[in-house]
From TrEMBL:
PROSITE patterns assigned: ABC_TRANSPORTER_1 (PS00211), ABC_TRANSPORTER_2 (PS50893)
Catalysed reactions listed for this entry: a polar amino acid(out) + ATP + H2O = a polar amino acid(in) + ADP + phosphate + H(+)
Bilayer topology annotation: Peripheral membrane protein
Name recorded for this polypeptide: ABC-type polar-amino-acid transporter
Organism: Actinomadura spongiicola
Length: 266
Protein backbone atom coordinates (compact mmCIF):
# COMPACT_ATOMS: atom_id res chain seq x y z
CA UNK A 1 0.00 0.00 0.00
CA UNK A 2 1.54 3.26 -1.12
CA UNK A 3 -0.10 6.63 -0.76
CA UNK A 4 -0.45 8.54 -4.00
CA UNK A 5 1.97 11.39 -3.94
CA UNK A 6 0.64 14.59 -5.41
CA UNK A 7 2.80 17.06 -7.33
CA UNK A 8 4.72 18.28 -4.36
CA UNK A 9 8.29 19.17 -3.74
CA UNK A 10 10.12 22.30 -2.83
CA UNK A 11 8.28 22.37 0.47
CA UNK A 12 10.68 22.87 3.31
CA UNK A 13 9.96 24.08 6.81
CA UNK A 14 12.29 26.55 8.51
CA UNK A 15 11.55 27.51 12.09
CA UNK A 16 13.69 30.18 13.76
CA UNK A 17 13.57 31.45 17.33
CA UNK A 18 9.96 30.33 17.69
CA UNK A 19 8.28 31.28 20.95
CA UNK A 20 4.71 30.80 22.05
CA UNK A 21 3.21 31.85 25.35
CA UNK A 22 -0.30 31.30 26.65
CA UNK A 23 -0.57 34.12 29.17
CA UNK A 24 2.33 33.69 31.57
CA UNK A 25 2.94 30.12 30.42
CA UNK A 26 5.76 30.09 27.87
CA UNK A 27 5.21 26.82 26.07
CA UNK A 28 7.76 27.22 23.25
CA UNK A 29 10.96 28.88 24.38
CA UNK A 30 13.02 29.44 21.25
CA UNK A 31 12.73 26.58 18.76
CA UNK A 32 15.09 26.39 15.79
CA UNK A 33 14.27 23.57 13.43
CA UNK A 34 14.66 22.96 9.74
CA UNK A 35 12.98 20.23 7.74
CA UNK A 36 14.52 20.03 4.28
CA UNK A 37 12.43 19.30 1.22
CA UNK A 38 11.62 15.59 1.16
CA UNK A 39 12.92 15.08 4.67
CA UNK A 40 11.05 13.28 7.46
CA UNK A 41 11.56 14.61 10.98
CA UNK A 42 9.97 12.88 13.97
CA UNK A 43 9.38 14.91 17.13
CA UNK A 44 9.27 13.06 20.43
CA UNK A 45 8.98 14.30 23.98
CA UNK A 46 6.93 14.14 27.15
CA UNK A 47 3.34 15.31 27.47
CA UNK A 48 3.15 19.08 27.73
CA UNK A 49 6.57 19.68 26.15
CA UNK A 50 5.00 21.74 23.36
CA UNK A 51 4.97 19.30 20.42
CA UNK A 52 1.39 20.00 19.34
CA UNK A 53 1.86 23.73 19.87
CA UNK A 54 4.91 23.60 17.58
CA UNK A 55 2.91 21.96 14.80
CA UNK A 56 -0.02 24.31 15.35
CA UNK A 57 2.29 27.31 15.00
CA UNK A 58 3.55 26.00 11.65
CA UNK A 59 0.08 26.12 10.07
CA UNK A 60 -1.03 29.14 12.10
CA UNK A 61 -3.64 27.39 14.20
CA UNK A 62 -1.70 29.24 16.91
CA UNK A 63 -0.14 32.62 16.42
CA UNK A 64 3.54 32.56 17.43
CA UNK A 65 4.57 35.07 20.09
CA UNK A 66 7.97 35.54 18.45
CA UNK A 67 10.17 34.02 15.80
CA UNK A 68 9.67 33.04 12.20
CA UNK A 69 8.19 30.09 10.35
CA UNK A 70 8.86 29.64 6.67
CA UNK A 71 7.13 27.04 4.53
CA UNK A 72 8.52 26.59 1.03
CA UNK A 73 10.39 29.86 1.47
CA UNK A 74 7.30 31.88 2.39
CA UNK A 75 7.28 33.60 5.78
CA UNK A 76 3.93 32.49 7.17
CA UNK A 77 4.36 34.73 10.20
CA UNK A 78 4.50 37.92 8.12
CA UNK A 79 1.76 40.33 9.21
CA UNK A 80 0.17 40.54 5.75
CA UNK A 81 0.16 36.79 5.14
CA UNK A 82 -2.89 35.14 3.56
CA UNK A 83 -3.64 32.53 6.21
CA UNK A 84 -5.93 30.50 3.97
CA UNK A 85 -3.27 30.34 1.27
CA UNK A 86 -0.72 29.17 3.85
CA UNK A 87 -3.01 26.44 5.17
CA UNK A 88 -3.67 25.15 1.66
CA UNK A 89 0.03 24.34 1.33
CA UNK A 90 0.17 22.41 4.58
CA UNK A 91 -1.63 19.14 5.23
CA UNK A 92 -2.36 18.29 8.83
CA UNK A 93 -3.42 15.00 10.36
CA UNK A 94 -4.44 14.92 14.00
CA UNK A 95 -4.98 12.19 16.56
CA UNK A 96 -8.75 12.60 16.10
CA UNK A 97 -9.84 12.18 12.51
CA UNK A 98 -12.71 14.70 12.50
CA UNK A 99 -14.50 13.22 9.50
CA UNK A 100 -18.00 14.39 8.67
CA UNK A 101 -20.26 11.55 9.89
CA UNK A 102 -22.95 12.25 7.28
CA UNK A 103 -20.53 11.97 4.34
CA UNK A 104 -19.01 8.83 2.84
CA UNK A 105 -15.24 8.36 2.67
CA UNK A 106 -15.39 9.75 -0.86
CA UNK A 107 -17.53 12.70 0.25
CA UNK A 108 -15.10 13.50 3.04
CA UNK A 109 -12.17 13.63 0.62
CA UNK A 110 -14.16 15.62 -1.96
CA UNK A 111 -15.64 18.39 0.18
CA UNK A 112 -12.61 20.57 0.93
CA UNK A 113 -11.38 20.26 -2.64
CA UNK A 114 -14.73 21.65 -3.78
CA UNK A 115 -15.10 24.36 -1.15
CA UNK A 116 -11.49 25.52 -0.72
CA UNK A 117 -9.89 24.74 -4.09
CA UNK A 118 -13.12 25.21 -6.08
CA UNK A 119 -12.49 22.03 -8.05
CA UNK A 120 -15.32 20.70 -10.19
CA UNK A 121 -17.14 17.62 -8.93
CA UNK A 122 -15.71 15.19 -11.50
CA UNK A 123 -12.13 16.28 -10.90
CA UNK A 124 -12.53 16.28 -7.12
CA UNK A 125 -14.02 12.78 -7.21
CA UNK A 126 -11.29 11.47 -9.49
CA UNK A 127 -8.61 12.82 -7.15
CA UNK A 128 -10.48 11.50 -4.10
CA UNK A 129 -10.67 7.99 -5.60
CA UNK A 130 -6.94 8.10 -6.42
CA UNK A 131 -6.04 9.17 -2.92
CA UNK A 132 -8.35 6.65 -1.26
CA UNK A 133 -6.83 3.94 -3.42
CA UNK A 134 -3.39 5.17 -2.40
CA UNK A 135 -4.20 4.64 1.27
CA UNK A 136 -5.63 1.16 0.59
CA UNK A 137 -9.31 2.09 0.73
CA UNK A 138 -10.42 1.66 -2.89
CA UNK A 139 -13.21 -0.63 -1.69
CA UNK A 140 -14.44 1.75 1.04
CA UNK A 141 -15.23 4.88 -0.94
CA UNK A 142 -18.97 4.50 -0.26
CA UNK A 143 -18.63 3.74 3.47
CA UNK A 144 -19.58 6.21 6.18
CA UNK A 145 -17.14 6.90 9.04
CA UNK A 146 -19.25 4.84 11.47
CA UNK A 147 -18.77 1.84 9.16
CA UNK A 148 -14.98 2.19 9.18
CA UNK A 149 -12.39 1.15 11.75
CA UNK A 150 -10.33 3.85 13.45
CA UNK A 151 -7.36 2.98 11.26
CA UNK A 152 -9.49 3.24 8.13
CA UNK A 153 -10.92 6.58 9.29
CA UNK A 154 -7.43 7.90 9.89
CA UNK A 155 -6.41 6.79 6.39
CA UNK A 156 -9.42 8.70 5.00
CA UNK A 157 -8.15 11.73 6.91
CA UNK A 158 -4.71 11.29 5.34
CA UNK A 159 -6.27 10.94 1.86
CA UNK A 160 -8.31 14.09 2.54
CA UNK A 161 -5.15 16.05 3.40
CA UNK A 162 -3.24 14.70 0.38
CA UNK A 163 -6.09 15.49 -2.02
CA UNK A 164 -5.39 19.17 -1.38
CA UNK A 165 -1.90 18.79 -2.89
CA UNK A 166 0.05 20.03 0.15
CA UNK A 167 3.75 20.87 0.00
CA UNK A 168 4.36 19.55 3.49
CA UNK A 169 2.49 17.27 5.87
CA UNK A 170 2.24 17.64 9.63
CA UNK A 171 1.16 14.64 11.70
CA UNK A 172 0.26 14.98 15.39
CA UNK A 173 0.24 11.54 17.02
CA UNK A 174 -1.81 10.08 14.16
CA UNK A 175 -1.86 6.57 15.63
CA UNK A 176 -2.14 7.20 19.35
CA UNK A 177 -5.95 6.88 19.44
CA UNK A 178 -5.91 3.58 17.54
CA UNK A 179 -6.14 0.02 18.77
CA UNK A 180 -2.68 -1.56 18.47
CA UNK A 181 -3.67 -3.85 15.60
CA UNK A 182 -4.76 -0.85 13.49
CA UNK A 183 -1.59 1.19 13.94
CA UNK A 184 0.45 -0.71 11.34
CA UNK A 185 -1.78 0.17 8.37
CA UNK A 186 -1.62 3.89 9.14
CA UNK A 187 2.14 3.81 9.65
CA UNK A 188 2.40 1.86 6.39
CA UNK A 189 0.64 4.67 4.53
CA UNK A 190 2.95 7.23 6.14
CA UNK A 191 6.00 5.16 5.24
CA UNK A 192 4.82 5.03 1.61
CA UNK A 193 4.39 8.78 1.60
CA UNK A 194 7.85 9.36 3.04
CA UNK A 195 9.58 6.80 0.85
CA UNK A 196 7.69 6.37 -2.40
CA UNK A 197 9.00 3.81 -4.87
CA UNK A 198 10.03 6.59 -7.21
CA UNK A 199 10.76 10.27 -6.85
CA UNK A 200 11.18 12.34 -3.77
CA UNK A 201 9.10 11.73 -0.67
CA UNK A 202 6.81 14.16 1.06
CA UNK A 203 8.29 16.66 3.51
CA UNK A 204 6.94 15.44 6.84
CA UNK A 205 7.03 16.70 10.42
CA UNK A 206 5.63 13.93 12.60
CA UNK A 207 4.91 13.93 16.32
CA UNK A 208 4.87 10.28 17.33
CA UNK A 209 5.74 7.87 20.08
CA UNK A 210 6.12 5.03 17.59
CA UNK A 211 9.84 4.50 18.01
CA UNK A 212 9.97 1.69 15.45
CA UNK A 213 8.54 4.04 12.83
CA UNK A 214 10.88 6.87 13.84
CA UNK A 215 13.88 4.57 13.72
CA UNK A 216 13.01 3.23 10.29
CA UNK A 217 11.50 6.21 8.48
CA UNK A 218 12.80 9.42 10.08
CA UNK A 219 15.84 11.17 8.68
CA UNK A 220 16.13 12.93 12.02
CA UNK A 221 14.58 12.64 15.45
CA UNK A 222 14.05 15.72 17.60
CA UNK A 223 13.58 15.37 21.36
CA UNK A 224 11.67 18.25 22.95
CA UNK A 225 11.22 18.95 26.63
CA UNK A 226 9.99 22.07 28.38
CA UNK A 227 9.50 23.99 25.14
CA UNK A 228 13.03 23.59 23.82
CA UNK A 229 14.80 21.13 21.53
CA UNK A 230 17.02 19.17 23.91
CA UNK A 231 18.73 17.16 21.20
CA UNK A 232 18.33 16.06 17.62
CA UNK A 233 20.09 13.74 15.24
CA UNK A 234 19.81 10.55 13.23
CA UNK A 235 17.27 8.17 14.80
CA UNK A 236 19.82 5.54 15.71
CA UNK A 237 21.87 8.12 17.60
CA UNK A 238 19.04 9.84 19.46
CA UNK A 239 17.03 6.69 20.23
CA UNK A 240 19.82 4.21 20.96
CA UNK A 241 22.50 6.50 22.27
CA UNK A 242 20.93 9.72 23.59
CA UNK A 243 23.33 12.39 24.78
CA UNK A 244 21.07 13.85 27.46
CA UNK A 245 19.72 12.37 30.66
CA UNK A 246 16.26 13.84 29.98
CA UNK A 247 16.13 12.01 26.64
CA UNK A 248 17.24 8.76 28.29
CA UNK A 249 14.56 9.03 30.96
CA UNK A 250 11.86 9.75 28.41
CA UNK A 251 12.91 6.92 26.12
CA UNK A 252 13.06 4.37 28.91
CA UNK A 253 9.43 5.21 29.69
CA UNK A 254 8.28 5.04 26.07
CA UNK A 255 10.25 1.95 25.12
CA UNK A 256 9.35 0.05 28.28
CA UNK A 257 5.98 1.32 29.57
CA UNK A 258 5.67 -1.63 31.98
CA UNK A 259 8.84 -0.62 33.78
CA UNK A 260 7.61 2.97 33.95
CA UNK A 261 4.40 1.88 35.66
CA UNK A 262 6.35 0.34 38.52
CA UNK A 263 6.45 2.92 41.25
CA UNK A 264 3.41 4.85 40.05
CA UNK A 265 1.28 5.79 43.01
CA UNK A 266 -2.01 4.70 41.46
N1 LIG B 1 -4.84 26.91 23.70
C1 LIG B 1 -4.11 26.82 24.82
N2 LIG B 1 -4.31 27.67 25.85
C2 LIG B 1 -3.57 27.58 26.97
N3 LIG B 1 -2.59 26.69 27.17
C3 LIG B 1 -2.34 25.81 26.17
C4 LIG B 1 -3.08 25.82 24.96
N4 LIG B 1 -2.61 24.84 24.17
C5 LIG B 1 -1.63 24.24 24.86
N5 LIG B 1 -1.45 24.83 26.06
C6 LIG B 1 -0.44 24.43 27.06
O1 LIG B 1 0.79 24.32 26.41
C7 LIG B 1 1.57 23.28 26.96
C8 LIG B 1 2.07 22.40 25.85
O2 LIG B 1 0.96 21.77 25.24
P1 LIG B 1 1.10 20.88 23.94
O3 LIG B 1 -0.27 20.41 23.62
O4 LIG B 1 1.85 21.59 22.90
O5 LIG B 1 2.00 19.68 24.49
P2 LIG B 1 2.34 18.27 23.82
O6 LIG B 1 3.81 18.14 23.86
O7 LIG B 1 1.68 18.17 22.50
O8 LIG B 1 1.69 17.24 24.85
P3 LIG B 1 0.97 15.81 24.57
O9 LIG B 1 2.08 14.80 24.39
O10 LIG B 1 0.21 15.56 25.82
O11 LIG B 1 0.10 15.95 23.37
C9 LIG B 1 0.70 22.58 27.97
O12 LIG B 1 1.08 23.04 29.25
C10 LIG B 1 -0.69 23.05 27.63
O13 LIG B 1 -1.50 23.11 28.75
MG1 LIG C 1 0.21 16.95 21.70
Amino acid sequence: MTAVKTETSGGAIEIGGLRKAFGANEVLRGIDLRVASGEVVCVIGPSGSGKSTLLRCVNLLEEPTAGTVRVGGVDVTAPDVDIDAVRRRIGMVFQSFNLFPHLTALGNVVIAQRKVLRRGRAEAERIAREQLEGVGLADKTGSYPAQLSGGQQQRVAIARALAMGPEVMLFDEPTSALDPELVGDVLGVMRGLARPGEGRGMTMLVVTHEMGFAREVADRVVFMDGGVVVEEGPPARVIDDPAHERTRTFLSRVLDPAAARVGETD
